[in-house]
Amino acid sequence: MGAFYSPFISKPDNVSQIMLKVLVALIPGIALYVWYFGPAILVSITLASITALGTEALMLKLRNRPLAPFLKDNSALLTAWLLALSIPPLAPWWLVVVGTAFGIAIAKHLYGGLGNNPFNPAMVGYAVLIISFPQQMTKWLAPHGLVPAELGFLDQLAYIFSGVLPDGIKLDAVTMATPLDTLRTRLVLDEQVQQILGLPIFGSLAGHGSEMVALGFVVGGVYLLVSRIITWHVPAAYLGTLFVTAGIFHLADPAHYAAPLFHLFSGAAMIGAFFILTDPVTSPTTHKGKLIFAAGAGLLTFLIRAFGGFPDGVAFATLLMNICVPLIEAHTQPPVFGRKGRRS
Fold first, then answer.
1. What predicted TM-score, i.e. pTM, was given to this entire model?
2. What are the C-alpha distances in Å from 215 to residues 81, 159, 234?
3. 3-class SS at 202?
């Protein structure tokens, strides 16, 4: 007999429905990504999705688990989409496959599958790729109109699968560093922030085009909040801490530290705030724990961007805070009913 719910109580979403809503929420950001940078990202998303489902099926088979329930829960697809959106859209096909397969097989199933993994699988896949293949992870497509040559979809497709560009076009003519990497590199050359932000790659708030993609993820994040898929605690604490920390450094030395809004709309900050750090498996369950977890990630993101070895810090901040989740949970769980508190 099925479950019955009172007229004014809605039936809770299952895992598949929740994951599907998160995938839908990513679509505004993806659409703007295609508009400003071309359709190559759709190839990466497709490759990652196929690899994720294939690896998921293989691991389930090896673990003697039923395939259909887990393949239909959409969790593997979400990992695939998040990873694809985190790496350059012109990344060679094998890079997407390696990162996705590692995230699903090692970061997810090695720990027992969905619900048991301590680390966000997509961010593990990203970390493996940027450490192992740093050169391939720096070839980002330039937004339309900022470089002398642009690739059509078929040209992008050919490069992803064969590494061949049309005659007379070099890779440097269609790619460029990310806004965060550009800022970091030129600061090392002793240029000032205001001078750097005058370059064509930068828009009103952050990078030309990428700031609009970030806004698309904000729209998706609001949808998740309204749908009650996520709560406000993680996005507010993460973005608030990143804003305040960046603001303090900017006020202290505006010539060498960008304004807070630049950090909010650069890199993976927005997708991290609404889609990555809110992963219910790898983040705390209590409201207080979520605030601590996200605030720590926001602080680490800025510190890695400003002083670390990588231009963006969202992935590593997420993984470092994933390590802290058991400790955060232990100190933020309410006392068991009937007990006054912890024993000393």
1. 0.91
2. 18, 29, 17
3. strand
